Amino acid sequence: MTPVDRAVFVAAYSRLVAEVWADPAKEQALDRDPRGFLAGYGLQLSEDVQVRVVRDVADADPDLEAQVESWQQAGTTGTFVLFVPSLLPVARTELAEDELDSVVAGLDPSCACCCPCCCT
Questions:
Q1: pTM assigned to the model
Q2: Contact criterion met (CB below 8 Å) for 80 and 49
Q3: Which of 21, 22, 39, 86 could form a Cys-Cys staple with 56, CB 3.0–4.6 A?
Q4: How confident is the model at residue 85, as a pLDDT?
Q5: What sign for the dihedral angle of Cα 57, 9, 70, 39?
């Protein structure tokens, strides 16, 4: 796989996963027709390659390299394993007062004043 082919695959795969996370209709479309769904993202597989979708892998966290390798070897192995990682909820936590004081619209607190140097 050339670096360009790899970049094209990674971009398509990343977009696919993000859209499956964001849209329940896309998730259902993936379940109904994985091969057609992949094709919609420019990821074409020959008819003799089976597509297996693996989700919410509890005991393993497949990395991007595992996904690239599965894509690259699909023609040889006869199976493409599409990993769709679970979307973990963002943990809620409270900030301490000093932490809140250090966050001013994403700026360093030393820059959060109105001084003549930035008001020109």
A1: 0.68
A2: yes
A3: 86
A4: 82
A5: positive
Closest CA to 15 of 31, 2, 26: 26
Answer whether residue 61 shows pLDDT above 70. Answer: no
pLDDT mean across residues, the chain: 81
Rounded CA gap, 61 and 37, in Å? Answer: 23
User: What DSSP state is assigned to residue 92?
Assistant: P
Gyration radius of the chain's alpha carbons: 22
Per DSSP, which regions of 56-119 are E strands? 79-84
Whether residue 81 has pLDDT greater than 80: yes
Q: Return the sign of the alpha-carbon dihedral for residues 17, 22, 26, 30.
A: positive
Query: Tokens 């996963």 correspond to what residue?
Result: 17
Query: Contact 51/80 with Cβ under 8 angstroms?
Result: yes
Closest-CA residue to 52 (of 27, 21, 30):
30
Neighbouring C-beta atoms of residue 61, cutoff 10 Å: 10
From residue 32, give the alpha-carbon distance in Å to each of 27, 35, 36, 48, 53. Answer: 9, 9, 9, 18, 11
